[in-house]
């Protein structure tokens, strides 16, 4: 349990429900986070919300770079869906953006929401550590259009390369 | 010592950088971008340019010990790059419970001062290079026991490190919180100022953000000029991550910074 403002701030910035509770009942949040209530009163709740939103916006922006076609497919639904995903998963480490993309893809898959499988395949491979991956996708971008294909991913000296094998019969 | 003006290395700029344009006097590489990379890439860059290594994820403001894995990975990049100095942010990106992934402010308290001094010394000991600490832009102002310039001066004195002044972040915070950035600058001991970061700010509704997506605005050139006129700053780095323009536009920005730096 936190006993310092930085750890408490981490909890507040990552948990929308906790921030809502803070607005209603700072004493309860101070008790849960084990910090003096005065420290919480010193926080500007509007600024706290802006800072928290900016963390989610930065994550969504980075995931958009990994999953541009998916975000385009989602259109106006993207911000809300991403916020929902981001509230339950915080990626760790220096590969956090691609991990975030891989998990967001899984989140969309579970919900049956639009998802570019080819992008998701790549994100999952990059997020992992295996040197070779082979995956099927119905929407690989080949020759200016979306096609069914098997994609081969290779990892060499920190760089990921991919090659799509166009599958006429699928 | 020769003053240097350069740019943050980004993959999108690799071709232009490889052509060794005269406007690029030095390069700053982001440590985390090279954690999985072949050390040969860094050795090749260091043959062509003086390098600086800049960190995003050491989370110096997190209470408790530094993340040993992150510090090891950072130190490996430093070893391969052999930079003139290294840098990190005055911020926390994670706590023991959650990795927030981006920069968040720490309050200017005596406890955080001691923590940051300890962490800064550990990074310098581990990497064997001088460390600069960078001010961040934030929407959130935290109550502290001293104000930011006093905190920064004490931190540099006690840790034996320098400041990487992000001109854009200073400007954004001055607008967000309503203070005079030149006055703020006047309270920083000039001997601590070693390097500048600069990029255009982005207007987002009624706020300003550091999206690293815009050309440098005139008021930022002016503020950079104030800093350069006051302190023996050794280098200036242009940071651009989004909306990356034609290299000729970046070269023009570097040329203007060079003119201010030389002036």
How do you describe this structure in short?
The complex is a heterodimer of chains A (170) and B (263). Chain A is an alpha+beta fold and 170 residues long. Chain A has helices at residues 5-14, 16-24, 26-33, 37-41, 45-66, 68-74, 78-88, 96-111, 117-127; strands spanning 132-142, 145-156, 159-166.
What tags apply to this protein structure?
heterodimer; A: 170 residues; alpha+beta; 2 domains; three-stranded antiparallel beta sheet; 3 strands; elongated; B: 263 residues; alpha/beta; TIM Barrel; 9 helices; 12 strands; globular
Q: How is this structure best described in words?
A:
- The complex is a heterodimer of chains A (170) and B (263).
- Chain A is 58% helix and 18% strand.
- Chain A has 170 residues and is of the alpha+beta class.
- Chain A folds into two domains: 1-43, no CATH class; 44-166, no CATH class.
- In chain A, a hairpin with a 2-residue loop joins strand 1 and strand 2 (145-156).
- In chain A, helix 2 packs across helix 3 and helix 7 crosses helix 8 (96-111).
- Chain B has 263 residues and is α/β, with parallel strands linked by helices.
- Chain B has a single domain (4-262), classed as Divalent-metal-dependent TIM barrel enzymes (TIM Barrel, Alpha-Beta Barrel).
- Chain B has nine helices and twelve strands.
- In chain B, helix 4 (110-127) runs parallel beside helix 5 (148-159) and helix 8 (218-230) runs parallel beside helix 9.
End-to-end C-alpha gap of chain A: 53 Å
Percent range of helical residues of chain B: 25-40%
Helix content of chain A: 55-70%
Mean pLDDT of chain A: 93
At the fourth level of CATH, the homologous superfamily of chain B is Divalent-metal-dependent TIM barrel enzymes
Global Rg of chain B: 17 Å
Beta-strand portion of chain A reads: 15-25%
Structural class based on helices, strands and sheet pairing of chain A? alpha+beta
Structural class by helix and strand composition of chain B? alpha/beta
Query: What's the order of the H and E elements of chain B?
Result: EHEHEHEEEHEHEHHEEEHEH
Oligomeric state of this protein = heterodimer
Work out the helix count of chain B: 9
Named CATH topology of chain B = TIM Barrel
Residue-averaged pLDDT of chain B: 96
pLDDT < 50 runs, ≥5 residues of chain A:
none
Number of domains of chain A: 2
